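Researcher: Here's a chain I'd like modeled. Treat it as a single chain, no partners, no ligands.
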Amino acid sequence: MTTINRLVSATLAALSFSVSAAVAAPQSFDFKDPKGVNNVQFHLDAPLESISGQGTGITGTVSFDPAAPAATTGRIVLSTDSLTVGNPTMKEHLHSANWLDVAKFPEIVFEAKSLTHAVTTGGSTKAEAKGVLTVKGIAKEITVPVTITYLPGKLGTRLNKPELKGDLLVLRAQFSINRSDFGIQVGQYANNVSEQIELTLSLAGAAAQPAP
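Model: Modeled as a single isolated chain. Structure tokens:
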């Protein structure tokens, strides 16, 4: 092999490695939604009353590698002050010191530590996210079934800004927690407020590309 051929081969190998490394690098997705659409819905179905509401004050970041979805980690934060229900009196009770104590505990946090049983089909990965949920200062390890959908190049489309380049990461999850596990009126008001809280998360995170 001539010296020129060796140089060409070495250069191509280096370029190939660089491209592979760039593709494989995890991206950081920001879940503070400029559209204000991201939401966590909650539902409690007790014998006397069915209560539903949502929270939209969501922030956080998720690290996602398209080449290794199972390595996903992240932290999602919900502002308790953004939680609302249709009945103003119920909302006042929800935010009070007797229930979520919004003044003392302004955030609900889920920190995803790892994914298990991850199966990827196309751009979507179904898995179980293992992590820690903190409500009212009480941290509990939980496992949440999630669907993660990677949408390369779709950031501008979602925000109706074609000039904006970047990727989207969409998270969907449905799971239940018990309010007594987090010290929320333990053993009280069972006829009106269900012990089990059903949660549904619908979130989109953005990884913007820097302008050239």
